[in-house]
Automatic annotation (TrEMBL):
Highest rank taxon of the organism: Bacteria
Record carries keyword Transport: yes
Protein's recorded name: ABC transporter domain-containing protein
GO cellular component: membrane protein complex
The family this protein is said to belong to: Belongs to the ABC transporter superfamily.
Stretches assigned to the ABC transporter domain: 5-244
Coiled coil: none
Organism: Oribacterium parvum ACB1
Name of a matching Pfam family: ABC_tran
InterPro entries on file: AAA+_ATPase, ABC_transporter-like_ATP-bd, ABC_transporter-like_CS, MacB-like_ATP-bd, P-loop_NTPase
Length: 267
């Protein structure tokens, strides 16, 4: 099996005036099609910076990002827009639905950008609303729906272009615990049934535990990976490749060790 995403020595340093803020200090990992990955860490650890760079929304300071066979850090802005339109779906914490459009029109929007005609795009939108168990609300605008319903519309919108990869930044951050479980169940369902690759950022260890594999970040480094017990995709990768997905882990117990001495390769 070949990875769908490969990241090597990914670094990001923000410059504010004379100050340099290192947000990512060298990430090395592979992700495979059909994996549900959680990037987990406390506030300021570098999760969103990592997601933004994988999605081509920010340029790395150093390093390589291969996604579906393309080196995205070398693309210019218009190539990145086309790349995202064709390969990537986004799920946002605050849903980002357009308030004056109903659910069908919101979901159909990415297809409109692709030039798909109204009848065809509305049909596709309804299909994904059905998949998310929210077809009854197809003609409701966002203010006529609960948070959980809006997020299901948000997921349908991410799916409508049939992307290989879906990025989700704190997708359940605004939901109560019951609705969070419902939305996570649906997210697992789309990963398993449609073989999508889902990369979710969260600060919450319980939400992260829904994923197949957690990458825990502290101070811009991966300090731990956690596999979900019994994960089908992780067993499939192990069986086909003879090893676990490549990740370089920098464990936290660094006292008395020089730089790099305690780095472990987990594969
Ligand atoms: N545009 C920016 N300019 C300067 N510094 C930034 C910028 N974006 C992020 N940072 C800094 O980079 C570090 C990592 O931030 P990031 O937003 O990736 O963390 P996070 O883990 O996603 O946090 P949160 O959960 O609070 O969103 C922090 O120290 C942050 O202050």
């Amino acid at each position: 099996m070949e990875p769908i995403i490969s990241v090597r020595n990914l670094k990001k340093i923000f410059t504010i005036g004379d100050n340099k803020v290192p947000a990512l200090n060298g990430l090395d990992f592979d992700i495979y099609q059909g994996e549900f990955i959680a990037i987990v860490g406390t506030s300021g650890s570098g999760k969103s910076t990592c997601l933004n760079m994988l999605a081509g929304l920010e340029k790395p300071s150093e390093g390589i990002i291969h996604i579906v066979g393309e080196e995205i850090e070398k693309m210019n802005e218009s190539e990145l827009v086309t790349f995202r339109r064709n390969h990537v779906g986004f799920i946002f914490q605050s849903y980002n639905l357009i308030p004056f459009l109903d659910a069908v029109e919101n979901v159909a929007m990415p297809l409109m950008f692709r030039g798909v005609g109204k009848e065809e795009r509305n049909k596709a939108a309804l299909h994904y609303l059905e998949l998310m168990n929210i077809a009854k609300e197809a003609n409701h605008t966002p203010n006529q729906m609960s948070g959980g319903q809006q997020q299901r519309v948000g997921i349908a919108r991410a799916l409508v272009i049939d992307p290989e990869i879906i990025f989700a930044d704190e997708p359940t951050g605004n939901l109560d615990s019951h609705t969070t479980e419902e939305v996570l169940t649906l997210m697992r369902k789309i990963v398993e049934e449609q073989k999508k690759t889902l990369i979710m950022v969260t600060h919450d260890p319980h939400i992260a535990s829904w994923s197949d594999r957690q990458l825990r970040i502290v101070d811009g480094r991966i300090v731990e990976t956690v596999l979900r017990e019994g994960s089908k995709i992780e067993e499939e990768i192990l069986e086909k490749n003879g090893e676990r997905p490549f990740t370089v882990v920098h464990p936290l117990n660094t006292e008395k060790k020089s730089e790099g001495e305690n780095d472990e390769k987990h594969s």
